[in-house]
């Protein structure tokens, strides 16, 4: 489970900001209103609304559902690898409790073809596994596919980069626009800096050119 807190003039505005930052739909999150906020009189005594947004899995809370999903996902991925002529093993991590996604890590030799340029092949493989599993189980399941923990290492590097850039933005008081990234990587940056008191993030651009802008937080 991943979560962040957002403040804005109204609950509706805070919700729009949170969904935009996480790049998810309303159906994929649970929203808790921490403070409704108030407009005050002529702006005097006004208080921002504050919400907590929690990313959820569709089958969270259903006993046994994730165990079935993990087994199904592992078999689907193994069948795909076999059809591709790739000899590898698939390890499943994550118990599925409390909204933890099913994570499938592929281990073997010379698996670069499964990662592709900037992880594009891996993203496509993950999408394919999710679609097939959803069709088999008739429900959406959060599944992460990795190759020799490539994605995990990349995410950790991305978090460190986001923190370094945030320090530069806070010090120089100038925004920094990051390189184009896929949705999952942009989400990592948004979540990493969500609670930073000095900077805020937003996504800009379209399609494959969509980027994250880190800028000073408005007071």
How would you summarize what this structure contains?
The chain is α+β, with helices and mostly antiparallel strands. The protein contains six helices and nine strands; from the N terminus they run βαββαββααβαβαββ.
Radius of gyration: 20 Å
Strand content: 15-25%
**Alpha plus pi helix count:** 6
The domain count comes to 3
Question: Main sheet?
Answer: 3 strands, antiparallel
Q: Low-confidence segments, ≥5 residues, pLDDT <50?
A: 58-66
By DSSP, the count of extended strands is 9
The helix/strand class is: alpha+beta
Mean pLDDT: 83
What name goes with the CATH superfamily of the largest domain?
K homology (KH) domain
Q: Order of SSEs, N→C?
A: EHEEHEEHHEHEHEE
How would you sum up the global shape?
globular
Query: What fold name goes in the CATH topology slot of the largest domain?
Result: GMP Synthetase, Chain A, domain 3
CATH architecture field of the largest domain: 2-Layer Sandwich
CATH class of the largest domain: Alpha Beta
User: What spatial order of strands do you see in the largest sheet?
Assistant: 1-3-2
Give the tags.
219 residues; alpha+beta; GMP Synthetase, Chain A, domain 3; Ribosomal Protein S8, Chain: A, domain 1; 3 domains; three-stranded antiparallel sheet; three-stranded mixed sheet; 6 helices; 9 strands; 23% strand; globular
């Amino acid at each position: 489970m991943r979560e962040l807190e957002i403040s804005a003039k109204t609950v509706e505005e805070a919700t729009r900001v949170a969904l935009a930052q996480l790049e998810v739909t309303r159906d994929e999150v649970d929203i808790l209103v921490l403070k409704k906020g108030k407009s005050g009189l002529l702006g005097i005594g006004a208080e921002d609304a504050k919400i907590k947004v929690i990313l959820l899995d569709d089958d969270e809370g259903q006993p046994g559902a994730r165990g079935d999903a993990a087994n199904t996902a592992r078999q689907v991925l193994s069948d795909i690898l076999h059809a591709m002529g790739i000899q590898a093993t698939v390890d499943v991590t994550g118990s599925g409790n409390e909204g933890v996604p099913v994570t499938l890590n592929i281990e073997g030799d010379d698996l670069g073809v499964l990662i592709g340029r900037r992880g594009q092949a891996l993203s496509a493989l993950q999408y394919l596994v999710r679609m097939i599993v959803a069709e088999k189980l008739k429900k959406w399941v959060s599944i992460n596919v990795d190759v020799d923990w490539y994605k995990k290492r990349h995410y950790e590097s991305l978090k460190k980069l986001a923190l370094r850039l945030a320090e530069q933005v806070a010090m120089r008081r100038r925004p920094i626009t990051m390189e184009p990234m896929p949705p999952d990587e942009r989400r990592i940056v948004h979540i990493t800096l969500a609670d930073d008191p000095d900077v805020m993030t937003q996504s800009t651009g379209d399609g494959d050119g969509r980027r994250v802008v880190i800028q000073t937080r408005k007071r």
